[in-house]
Amino acid sequence: MAFNVVDGWTVPGFTHERDLGGGASGRVVPAVDDTTGTRVAIRYLDRRLVDDQSFMARFSELARRLTQVEDPNVVDVYDFVTDAGGAAVVMQHVEGVSLRRVLAVQGPVGPLAALSTLGGTLLGLAAAHEQDAVHGTIRPSDVLVDERGNAVVGDFGLAPPGTEAQTVPAYAAPELWEGAPATVATDVYAATAVFFECLTGRPPYAGRNMARLHREAPIPVEEAPGPLRDLLRRGLAKDPADRPASVADFLAVLEEAAISAYGPSWEAQGRGRLTELAAEAARRPEPKKSSRGTGRNAIVTAAAQPVRGSRTRWIAAGVATLVVIGGAAFAVTALTGGEKEEPVAAPPTPAQQSTSPQPVLPEGGVDPAPLVARVEQATAQAPGAKFDFARDGEGAVRAKGTFAVVPGARPSYAMTVKGTGDARNAGKTLVVGDRFHGEVSREWRPLPADNPYAALTEQVRRGTSVATVTSLLRTATELRKDGDVYKGAAPAGTLAQVPGVGPLYASLSRTTGAPTVDFAIRLDRLNRPAALWLRSGDPKAKHAVLQTTYADWGRKSVKAPG
């Protein structure tokens, strides 16, 4: 249905659904890409922000940085769209419950779930800080809890500079009240204030003069369990110089305190408890807002990222880009910009035909041979790219990273990957040739092939390789062109025989029992893959959907640790 959000303007190419609500920064609306059926979330910025040229310039730059963030604890953003009608952020649609709702329905979540929430929040912030992207206004409504208890951070930089304290008074560091800019230190403070609320059911300070309370009131550590009080003292220190110097430093302190107090399984226990609380919060009606309130009334959150006017980082459905975090299916990426389907030339008349045998084209009339040649030539000239991969349905996986094509050998990969079971936490891995390495306690260590992270890395390597793209085109029994997207189907049995990537298709066939693989491939203007979507099986039964987006093609280098 049509949905007018800001002065009647909507981002073109999407069918909008219900309004999820919002606040001073704008409204959030789930939408479906009209071409691919991909579900996304679109935040329409408030007119006050759109008319603020200083904010828009700053936010555009922030969005550019956020596109470089590759971490499962940060909500993906696909596009920052502007025109005379308004401005909007198109982002990953994540199935989950905001932490604000969990707290409103459940109250305090307990120390283990609180630690798990803080850990996930800090991981997301650390990834953003590596790209010089500061959040500025962390609060419970900016943290999503997915179906597996992962904390995912969104809504970066939505407050104009100088207004952060007024935007989130319950979580604003003392220096923000004095007009200082948002920094890593203010993000640490806000994340700790949210942690305090997870422990106690309320923010650390409440009253008429919030500025004075944040600057002068004692840190209420006595309300927290004894083993966690030092975390609060450090994170809520009045002087930013007394807080941890980086989020990574704070994570190390958190892990030490958690293991000391609750043992090495604290994270699994905390994540399990948080999963239960989020599921219950989703089932129960939300209490009416109190006069204090802790954030916006949004069940599906999102984050901000750019590439003005570009939709190359999206794909379709589920991690459809499917985004799957810890096994929970999320929404994703769009393949086309609504271009008209190119007409297919009429078949030649008998007089025009050669007497020699002619190739039989797939249903749809597109000849894959010259297309494959163009793709292979283009990628040979730019032998590597950044990628974002997700698998939904049976065997959920998510990964982000970089690959480098190695002449005469299999591509090398550096990635952050997570799946389910023993590999449900995000892990950093490298694969060079047949050697797998994983980062353990900030050191690279060899991984045996049967290690769950090595197995996931190998699955991602097969699913994202250029050979996967070309194998689908070569074996297609159906192939049509729609703008810059090629849509078709290929027999699973034939694909399973393709050297190198065949095991991927064989695994899909065994898992889903499907005889064919449906796919869509988007190419950029230089004939390099921009997005790949493929599905095996019936969406209403056993199925798997794989989606990859590609960016920054060029010569890459991935080396094994010395």
Write the layout of secondary structure elements.
Blueprint: E1 14-16, E2 22-23, E3 26-33, E4 39-45, H1 47-50, H2 53-66, E5 77-83, E6 86-92, E7 96-98, H3 99-106, H4 111-129, E8 143-146, E9 151-153, H5 164-167, H6 174-177, H7 184-200, H8 210-216, H9 229-235, H10 247-262, H11 266-283, E10 323-325, E11 328-330, H12 368-381, E12 384-393, E13 397-404, E14 412-418, E15 427-432, E16 435-440, E17 443-447, H13 452-464, H14 466-475, E18 478-482, E19 485-491, H15 492-495, H16 502-512, E20 516-523, E21 529-537, E22 543-551
Antiparallel strand pairs: 1-3, 2-3, 3-4, 4-6, 5-6, 7-8, 8-9, 10-11, 12-13, 12-22, 13-14, 14-15, 15-16, 16-17, 18-19, 19-20, 20-21, 21-22
Helix pairs in contact: 3-11, 4-7, 4-10, 4-11, 12-14
Q: What share of residues is helical?
A: 25-40%
Enter the CATH topology name of the domain at 96-283: Transferase(Phosphotransferase), domain 1
Strand order of the largest sheet: 17-16-15-14-13-12-22-21-20-19-18
C-alpha geometry? globular
In terms of structural class, how would the helical and strand content be classed? alpha+beta
Instruction: Identify the CATH architecture of the domain at 96-283.
Output: Orthogonal Bundle
Q: Average pLDDT, to the nearest integer?
A: 82
State the assembly state of the protein chains. single chain
Q: Give a quick account of the main beta sheet: strands, pairing sense, barrel closure.
A: 11 strands, antiparallel
- The helix tally amounts to 16
Which CATH C-level class of the domain at 96-283 is it? Mainly Alpha
Assigned CATH superfamily of the domain at 96-283:
Transferase(Phosphotransferase) domain 1
Number of DSSP-assigned strands? 22
Which radius of gyration do the C-alpha atoms yield?
A: 24 Å
Q: Determine the N-to-C terminus distance.
A: 56 Å
